[in-house]
Amino acid sequence: MDKLEIQERILKGENLHTEFKESLSDNETLAKSIVCFANTDGGQLIIGISNS
């Protein structure tokens, strides 16, 4: 995934296949997101972006 693709995903916002995390400080929440993606069709977790 290149810079342009990441920017496009950010502009589209979160959905079933894209989730934003502001930081890596909450390991439990991060682990839950990864497990959810692993148990479905997968997705992208973008770190450093606020959910709002």
Automatic annotation (TrEMBL):
Domain (Schlafen AlbA-2) ranges: 14-51
Official protein name in the record: Schlafen AlbA-2 domain-containing protein
Taxonomic placement: unclassified sequences, metagenomes, ecological metagenomes
